[in-house]
Amino acid sequence: MNDCYEKKSFSEHFRGLNASLLIADEENRKIKARKIFSVIEDFIGDPEAVKRARCLDLGSSEGHISNFMAQYFGKVIGVDTDQPAIETAAGRSKEDKAVFVCGSGLDAPFRDHSFDVVICNQIYEHVPDPDKMMEQIGRILKKDGICFFGAGNRFKIMEGHYFLPFLSWLPKPLADRYLRIAGKGTSYEERHFSYYGIRKLVRNFKVSDYTLRIVREPDKFSFVDAPKMMKWISRLPAWLLTLLLPLAPNYMYILSNYKNGRNVGGSADAP
Predict the structure, then answer these.
(1) C-alpha distances out from residue 50 to 37, 118, 256, Å
(2) Are the C-beta atoms of residues 40 and 73 closer than 8 Å to each other?
(3) In angstroms, how far is CA 248 from the centroid of its own chain?
(4) What three-state secondary structure class fits 105?
(5) Which of 38, 50, 73, 243 could join 222 via S-S bond, C-beta 3.0 to 4.6 A?
């Protein structure tokens, strides 16, 4: 794990920079959770299958999204390397179906093919080896399982962790200097990819891209806070939206089955 997160937890690190940290804002987390669930629900298309599903929330932090999902899924496990956040999540959880585990997405402490659904939302930029994380997701998903994968574009205007424009565009030495000048830290540890880098990251999965569907149908996918610009953009012709896709600030995918037919062998039993 990068040094930035070895000495303090993710939540403590960002709360120290911003007292109104969004990952600790329960209402904001619920809005985000509804968006994620609406995409998963649309893809699965069977409410009974959702009720039976075993779900892993990868990078669960303080557990807001995990607890929301526990209202709908048969079982939800939140996992994070952030021990203080996991303790907070376990202490506040009111859902019997939500369990929290301290562990890493790079060496997920679960048996092969043990989850129907994995949620990996805005996580890849925080791990030192995103490819290994994707291998682990493929390993722990059941053969007919799916992963909700939300990913930020390196070339978005506003960097979402420090709220500094163009921060993620910069090479690390310049990004570090930018943070110091802005008084928001000394080392920029997040590593975002471009659209093409993200597509390469998920190359071993069959990808159902919901990004443009959400732009066109924000109400259907619970984007109650969609900016007015999204409604304007949604009126653009499909060919132009597709052309502009590499400039989207965020991408939302459902990943399913290794597209080359590769599956890791192992037990389907729970840990």
Answers:
(1) 10, 12, 16
(2) no
(3) 16
(4) coil
(5) 38
pTM over 0.85: yes
What's the sign of the alpha-carbon dihedral 7, 8, 13, 16? Answer: negative
Whether the predicted pLDDT of 264 surpasses 90: no
User: Nearest 5 degrees, angle CA 58-CA 25-CA 158?
Assistant: 80
- For residue 92, what are the CA distances in angstroms to 20, 26, 69, 198, 254? 19, 11, 15, 34, 29
What pLDDT score was predicted for residue 7? 41
How far apart (Å, rounded) are the C-alpha atoms in residues 195 and 242? 12
Residue 187 DSSP code: -
* Residue 111: how many other CB atoms lie within 10 Å: 15
CATH code for the structural domain at 3-154+192-256: 3.40.50.150
